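Homework help thread (please don't just give me the answer)

Our assignment gives two proteins as sequence + structure token strings and asks us to describe the second one. The first is just a warm-up. Here they are:
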Amino acid sequence: MKSSVFSAVSNLEKLTYLFWGLALLALPVTSFRWFPGLGEGTLVRPLALYPLAFLFLLLFIQAWRRKVKLFWAGAFLALGAFVLFVLFSGIAGSLLDPIPLRGQTYGGRVIRALITLFIGVSFFVSAVWMNRNEADLRFSVIWIFAGLILDLAWSGLQAVTFYTGLLEKETVTHWQLAFSMRELVRTNRISGLAYEPAWLAGQFATIFIPFLFAAVLTNFRITRMKWLEPALLALSLLVVLATYSRGGLLTTVAAAGLTFLFFGRNVTRSIWSWFINGFRKGMFNLLIRLGMIAVVFGALTGALLFLGQREYFRSLLNFEADDLSDYMVNISAGARGAYSAAAYETFEDHPLTGVGLGASGFYIYQNLPDWSLTTVPEIARQLSPENRLYPNPKNLYLRLLAETGLIGFILFLAFQLHVLGDALSLLKRNEAWARFAATAGVFAWLAITFYNFTQDSLTTPNIWLVSGIVVGLSANSVRKEIK
């Protein structure tokens, strides 16, 4: 009898890890077509939500049977304070009673926004509970890499379709529509398993590249294949280039540069020592080093030339504008700038509690800057009576300011700073895996910080997953020190 009970508990634990692994494997699919009850306008549809639901069910069953302890992390307090204020701001915003917009009512938008927030939080909480030690970290990263390999394979298939005649674009589009809300991008930009190229680039910058970059920088490997992480990193950077996403590229470069600045001093010394020693070991060694430097500079030059083929990137260097608004229009960011300006105007009108989560769209059109009404075609299309789209700020920070006010924004910022503190606290362990996790956590934190300037969704796993992993590892490290 005891043997059968033990077996049942063991199988339940294995199922828990299986569903967690499946959730990580499914991360690349951001707009899964087959979600019941969602309209065509709901674009953020993470496939990972399905296995995540089963994961929580199993975790709660085990917690009820006292077979597993769902521990408390300090970041939960900061996050909980933010969520509670979001609920309060929703009540306060209802007193403003905005006029329905294109079939959308205040109550409907707030409920929808709260659901998206709780979906995002569920990714964070599950990552915290499923990552307690080095073994859990290795398990998580292996499944994340498995999802990355699927994403790279589908991105490669798209590249073959776009740049060779081996596959018909219409055929591959039908394949993609079998699981995604989006057909292939007509401008031949790689979108992978995500909805659009910018989403793919953001996904790589905030989830995949942090672990790959940390593995190379700290020389910590998840598997015995020493070449795996460098190879995946090189392929990932190529895919990010092929997305032609300006925000994704800038986010990746900025996060990588700052992370290397903070954690790469030992690597810099080693590289410099290796280079200097080349002068002392003969001409052959010197030529090898000079050749490798030439390859690096050649790769950077090639990347710039590759991006420079598109006016979309060349326009960034065109400073012939009278003011900032003209420059935004010239670089095809006029609509994004107009929505952000309108969101900030909404914040100024309701600075303390905001207008309620999800409700900023009711105020955007009336707060659009004058310059956008005549110079931005997208704004003209949005204002057409035939258009049924609900506007959004396109910037998470401005969205939070507009919808939750200064108080909600500060609470969200406090949560983010707590996550950063947890990531840095892992360095105290002075172990290889902890330094790897800290490096990946800081890279992801920096990337998320930049990424949130270009997106405003609280549902996407990108801004929650790696944060949850490092918080879980840090929380358990603190518990062990107390014991």
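The one we have to describe:
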Amino acid sequence: MRAPRIVLVGAGKPEDFTVGRARTVAGTAVRFLRRRQVRRAAIWLHSGLDPLPQAAAIIEGATLAQFDTGVYKTHDDRPADLDQLVVVEPDPAREEGARAGADRGRVLGEATNLARRLANEPANRLGPVELASAAQQLAGNFGLECDVLDERRIAELGMGAIVGVAQGSDRPPRVIVLRYRTESSVPPIGLVGKAVMFDSGGISIKPAEHMHEMKMDMSGGAAVLGAMQAIAQLKPRVEVIGVIAATENLISGHAMRPGDVIATLSGKTVEVLNTDAEGRLILADAITYARRLGAERLVDIATLTGAIVVALGHAATGVFGRPHDWVELVRRAAEVAGERTWLMPLFDEYREQLRSGIADIANVGGRPGGAGVGATFLAEFVEPGMPWAHLDIAGTAWTEKDLPYLAKGPTGVGVRTLAHFAFQAAAVTADERR
């Protein structure tokens, strides 16, 4: 070998070496090399694994390992970026699969890093207007259609929930619509993301400790942006409509108050018992709008509840929805993406907790079953019979410690799941129609 240095990475027992382990090994190696200012490296594919998903995972891991949260540091001792990573496949019969996998891994890794970069931005530099501008630029670069609703159009359409959450901030809200079109007879998919650019909790203010991290409360919206970038490049045979509700949740003399009643785009009224349960409010309007735009199947993604962190910790994303087959399709996509999920219930009792004496529904229902109650609130705005899944990423959108291929900070969770999901949904529907 002509390589002057060889890096050995412990990968566990040979029988436990999987595609997921390949992602971790590649990311671990790249983070190690970056700290030592190495700029070129090669990784040899394992002969016992399919070259396509293996190469994809390796490039994903390496790309994710390139992300650096310290973008505003002024010193020059930041880790070096890897300029070149070669994936080595010695078997000519496997070369085509390895090449296709490497291309896919690059697309998914870069899209995930886009979401991480947005979630990492401080709120004074990235507000709803700036997020909308980023979406417009993305659409121009990757051939997507883009429509941005400003505060006037939001109000004229009757999106009272978004107006209510946004009214405490001097920065106006935006609703961002990205559309990927393709020739397909299968029903369009709607991807709906929560993008609260900063969440103080409103009048129901959050504790000061860790409030600075609430710049990441837009991680669901960032995941939809990243997924739409990947979908535009990977080109699944299904139309995808991305809808992102972007606002801030702040405190002022104009802020929404506990006890206020707001009218949503769906026509339903909501009694606001807690202004810190704002994500479900803006998602209610965004879900309704996605349906009006033609989405016949829905997935929403949001840092929705602290309760999901209590239930699952930071180990998994909570998944809710109906029917079971649709939810399982999302979970299978997450498994392919290497993003752990856990199925959560939607019990009828949760709806009872949301009863209001003055409006159609309250926005909170007490502490018991908080994650399920939040998901049940969203279900009220999904038409009966419509396939729908809800991803609560409050515990997985941010990591408090360095992981093998992820630096401390935003994880970009959901991007790869949603991208894989678009392919799976298209394939399953096509099979059913045949």
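TA reply:
I won't write it for you, but here's a hint about the kind of observation we're looking for: Residues 14-111 form a domain with the Leucine Aminopeptidase, subunit E; domain 1 fold (CATH 3.40.220.10).
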